[in-house]
């Protein structure tokens, strides 16, 4: 073994130290960071006679622990490739995509083909005929991020962006935003200083569709685990409401409720019924801090429709006994209770379901009735709100990086101004709200049918009204798509009714498809040209632990320390792979855009340095020290600084005193109040009343709406099992899955069968299994009218009879016959959910639950 040097880097599951054998150019291991005496001290919280302080090290997730195996994966794309029967100057054989094989070509050949196609299409059809999009997540690093490197290139070249739906937020975005605003947080509430508030004041936490031990909020590894143990130590009761007995429930639950899928809003309505009829709510708060309570009570009490939403009614809908609903309601109202609605204080698979917007709205109504913002009472899942200094500026990955496309990042304004004081950012009219757009959930229809209409441009963070704006494809004057430049390849595992995405590639309507990916999996298998990218361990970058600001301000408050890392290039790119930045630089050369793209020849390290100087880092550390040491711990606010718990200002009817970004001054009166029409928490939404008071799928009066894919649905007789499919425990969406990574060894991730395949796991109750003759680890076909997936059965009482559980985000796609028209045995269970938008007037996904039938699958010979 040669000389070993310790590098620093970052991942979606925590920052790491990386030991590299520098002579061999090989990564040996990576592990969490241990902080030293020289690093800034950790916070301390005094609560109920105790002092709490976090461990002085970072944590990592399973996907990070398995990173090395992904870097050296046999599935890595090491050379540019061309589909064997694709000839740009002759037969393109589009219908063979996904079936024909690939041949290795040189970088010159690959880049020449791609750049010639870009030039041809721009000339003949205009830049809007080039469609591009990345997936939601990216390997870690602000400079290499999709908002940065990809957007800088695409904005220069010109393109139509396939807008992302607000996947993580759906119900909060399309529903919750109408009850309390928070558009700049995409419908989720602020979370400042809630850890201290929780430790000092909270007596009970209701985790409703939340599993922080699995999801870790987001990107923050196991930073919040000690907090939950402290809360338990202080005697805080923990209740879990989840169809699945999730992993946090397994560790902490005092009581678990498993409502029938799609009926959470009914459970909430009956809790409200108990509170109203027994007078168990904060009457003064409701009278002064909320809007529409009386009208809403008419709905809850049945004055509106003759159906009182009493616990008996609740039992019929949810399957939870009426006496348990009553007990929960009374216990909740009797104590200072935090509502952990989703894993980040907001989110939760329930918000990505057919009734997601009403669930989120109901959560807001419940916490409004109990006095949100008063000590110990809030929406909080224990994952955000640790003490930190929000005054120290370091941007998140969604603030634009080297593109500084202010239109497509929620916070580019602050960073772009600092980053580009002496050089130019790039924006592109096609990718502006007036340009051409396609929701990524409708890419197949755009290609196959060529015509679309919908409301809302994906993320509508700018204001509430943006949701109502109508869009059409093709936009007036624009051409239809001629080329799809796909960056990453996960959609068959992660979007909805995903056989559509395979079918879409196999048509002449799409003359050219490029895929820029790291691994040969998923959609890469459908491209004409494949461009191999490298991982962030093979290039330079800079980032902060769990900071996705641009989407959500100050998310680093999930972590116990603010850790900013220089992501050092640890090894040379494997094979002939190149960094995404280098690939785009090379393409820019051929398009005559190199000067502009690279800003006169900057390397990725030059950009990292420019980024460093655009932040507050120079106030704490010099570039030279940072370059050597590789990380910086941001000191906390002085101990004497007053804490400003989220929404306390609102509860006390004061001016906002938290570091939050919004609401914009014109949406508030004298910096008091929320973004809603009334400035208050709304049971009846003023914005929905203004927009479409008769929309029964998203009515102004918050209510329970029967699921369009639930026990009341017509097809429930044919497909009697209700499945819940939330985020995978071990992988981070497709990251970490397949690739022959070490995660595959985990028996709760995939099951190895005799045929050498590792199958995706489908969990079902032993009773449902017995009724179908299914035994542990049998291969089963899970199916409905939308498709079929072959999985390995896991029999478990963590789901009640009638309910099944699996995870989403299989990385690969392995149809056993014709792609798009045959069962998949890789595990793309999103074949089975519906492409229908959550409601007719929104463009959100209801990906998380669906109806299926299951039968034993005879192993293929
Ligand atoms: N059933 C169900 N479905 C869901 C959800 C659910 O709750 N239930 N949740 C939804 C949510 S919240 C989300 S966020 C989405 C996530 O769904 P996706 O965003 O589709 O999934 P990711 O795994 O994040 O996809 C990342 C892709 O980008 C590629 N990639 C990553 N880094 C790089 C890079 O540096 N360079 C290049 N060239 N490529 C890179 C990866 O290889 C991968 O193909 O899934 C949604 N789907
Ligand atoms: N390990 C890991 N962590 C992740 C991710 C990952 O892929 N893997 N993804 C990250 C991303 S992009 C996001 S957006 C967040 C998401 O974070 P969350 O949205 O909080 O996580 P989910 O796993 O979708 O859902 C949490 C729990 O809700 C339950 N649930 C689902 N549907 C319902 C329902 O209808 N009612 C009730 N009561 N409960 C329900 C699920 O069983 C699950 O246990 O997680 C992040 N963290
Ligand atoms: Mo997400």
Automatic annotation (TrEMBL):
Its EC number is 1.97.1.2. Residues 14-69 form the Pyrogallol hydroxytransferase large subunit-like N-terminal domain. The keyword ATP-binding does not apply. Its cofactor is Mo-bis(molybdopterin guanine dinucleotide). Residues 76-590 form the Molybdopterin oxidoreductase domain. One of its GO terms (molecular function) is molybdenum ion binding. PROSITE patterns: MOLYBDOPTERIN_PROK_3 (PS00932). Residues 763-838 form the Molybdopterin dinucleotide-binding domain. One of its GO terms (biological process) is anaerobic respiration. It comes from the Bacteria. Pfam families: AhtL-like_1st, Molybdopterin, Molydop_binding. It is an enzyme of class 1 (oxidoreductase). Keywords: Metal-binding, Molybdenum, Oxidoreductase, Transferase. The keyword Oxidoreductase applies. GO terms for cellular component: outer membrane-bounded periplasmic space. Belongs to the prokaryotic molybdopterin-containing oxidoreductase family. PANTHER family: TRIMETHYLAMINE-N-OXIDE REDUCTASE, TRIMETHYLAMINE-N-OXIDE REDUCTASE 2. This is Pyrogallol hydroxytransferase large subunit.
């Amino acid at each position: 073994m040669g000389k070993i040097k310790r590098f620093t880097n970052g991942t979606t599951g925590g920052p790491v130290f990386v030991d590299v054998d520098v002579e061999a150019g090989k990564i040996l291991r990576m592990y969490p960071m241990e902080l030293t005496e020289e690093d800034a001290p950790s916070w301390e919280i005094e609560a109920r006679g105790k002092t709490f302080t976090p461990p002085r090290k970072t944590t990592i997730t399973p996907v990070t622990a398995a990173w090395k195996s992904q870097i050296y994966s046999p599935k890595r794309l090491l050379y540019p490739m061309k589909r064997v029967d694709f000839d740009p100057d002759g037969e393109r054989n589009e219908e063979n995509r996904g079936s024909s094989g690939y041949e290795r070509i040189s970088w010159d050949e690959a880049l020449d083909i791609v750049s010639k196609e870009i030039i041809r299409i721009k000339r003949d059809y205009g830049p809007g005929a080039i469609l591009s999009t990345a997936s939601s997540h990216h390997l870690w690093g602000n400079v290499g991020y999709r908002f940065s490197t990809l957007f800088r290139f695409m904005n220069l070249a010109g393109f139509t962006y396939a807008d992302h739906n607000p996947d993580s937020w759906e119900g909060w975005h399309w529903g919750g935003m109408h009850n309390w605003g928070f558009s700049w947080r995409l419908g989720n509430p602020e979370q400042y200083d809630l850890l201290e508030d929780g430790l000092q004041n909270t007596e009970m936490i209701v985790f409703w569709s939340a599993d922080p031990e699995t999801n870790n909020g987001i990107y923050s590894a196991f930073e919040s685990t000690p907090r939950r143990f402290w809360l338990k130590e202080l005697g805080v009761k923990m209740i879990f409401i989840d169809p699945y007995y999730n992993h946090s429930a397994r560790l902490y639950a005092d009581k678990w409720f498993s409502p029938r899928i799609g009926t959470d809003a009914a459970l909430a309505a009956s809790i409200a019924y108990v509170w109203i009829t027994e007078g168990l709510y904060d009457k003064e708060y409701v009278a002064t801090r909320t809007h529409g309570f009386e009208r809403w009570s008419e709905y809850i009490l049945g004055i509106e429709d003759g159906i009182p939403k009493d616990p008996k009614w609740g039992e019929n809908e949810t399957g939870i006994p009426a006496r348990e609903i009553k007990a929960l309601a009374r216990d909740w109202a009797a104590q200072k209770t935090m509502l952990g609605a989703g894993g980040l204080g907001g989110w939760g698979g329930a918000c990505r379901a057919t009734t997601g917007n009403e669930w989120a709205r109901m959560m807001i109504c419940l916490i409004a009735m109990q006095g949100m913002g008063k000590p110990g009472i809030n929406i909080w899942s224990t994952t955000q709100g640790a003490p930190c200094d929000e005054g120290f500026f370091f941007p998140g990955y969604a603030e634009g990086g080297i593109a500084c496309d202010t239109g497509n990042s929620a916070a580019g304004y602050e960073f772009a101004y600092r980053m580009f004081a002496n050089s130019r950012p790039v924006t592109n009219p096609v990718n502006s709200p007036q340009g051409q757009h396609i929701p990524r959930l409708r890419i197949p229809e755009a290609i196959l049918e060529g015509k679309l209409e919908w409301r809302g441009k994906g993320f509508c963070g700018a204001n509430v009204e943006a949701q109502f704006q109508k869009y059409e494809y093709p936009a007036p004057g624009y051409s239809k798509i001629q080329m799809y430049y796909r960056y990453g390849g996960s959609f068959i595992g992660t979007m909805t009714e995903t056989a559509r995405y395979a079918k879409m590639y196999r048509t002449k309507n799409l003359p050219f498809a490029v895929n820029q990916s790291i691994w040969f999996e998923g959609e890469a298998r459908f491209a004409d040209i494949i461009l191999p990218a490298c991982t962030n361990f093979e290039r330079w970058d800079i980032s902060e632990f769990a900071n996705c600001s641009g989407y959500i301000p100050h998310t680093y408050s999930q972590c116990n320390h603010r850790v900013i890392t220089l992501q050092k290039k640890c090894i040379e790119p494997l094979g002939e792979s190149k960094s995404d930045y280098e690939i785009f630089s090379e393409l820019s050369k051929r398009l005559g855009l190199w000067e502009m793209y690279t800003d006169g020849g900057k390397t990725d390290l030059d950009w990292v340095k420019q980024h460093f100087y655009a932040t507050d880092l120079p106030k704490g550390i010099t570039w030279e020290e940072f370059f050597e040491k590789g990380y910086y711990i941001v000191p906390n606010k002085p101990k004497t600084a007053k804490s400003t718990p989220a929404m306390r200002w609102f509860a006390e009817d004061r001016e906002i005193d938290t570091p939050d970004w919004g609401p914009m001054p014109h949406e508030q009166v004298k910096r008091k109040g929320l973004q809603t029409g009334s400035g208050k928490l709304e049971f009846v939404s003023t914005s929905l009343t203004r927009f479409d008071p008769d929309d029964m799928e998203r009515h102004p009066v918050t209510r329970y709406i029967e699921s369009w894919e639930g026990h009341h649905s017509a097809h429930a007789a044919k497909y009697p099992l209700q499945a819940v499919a939330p985020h995978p425990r071990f992988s981070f969406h497709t990251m970490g899955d397949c690739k022959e990574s070490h995660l595959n060894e985990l028996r709760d991730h995939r099951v190895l069968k005799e045929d050498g395949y590792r199958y995706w796991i489908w969990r079902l109750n032993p009773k449902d299994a017995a009724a179908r003759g299914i035994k542990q680890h049998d291969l089963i076909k899970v199916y409905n009218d939308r498709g079929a997936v072959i999985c390995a059965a896991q029999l478990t009482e963590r789901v009640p009879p009638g309910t099944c559980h699996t995870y989403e985000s299989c990385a690969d796609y392995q149809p056993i016959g014709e792609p798009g028209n045959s069962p998949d045995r890789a595990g793309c269970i999103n074949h089975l959910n519906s492409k229908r938008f959550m409601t007719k007037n929104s463009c959100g996904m209801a990906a998380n639950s669906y109806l299926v039938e299951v039968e034993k699958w005879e192993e293929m010979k």
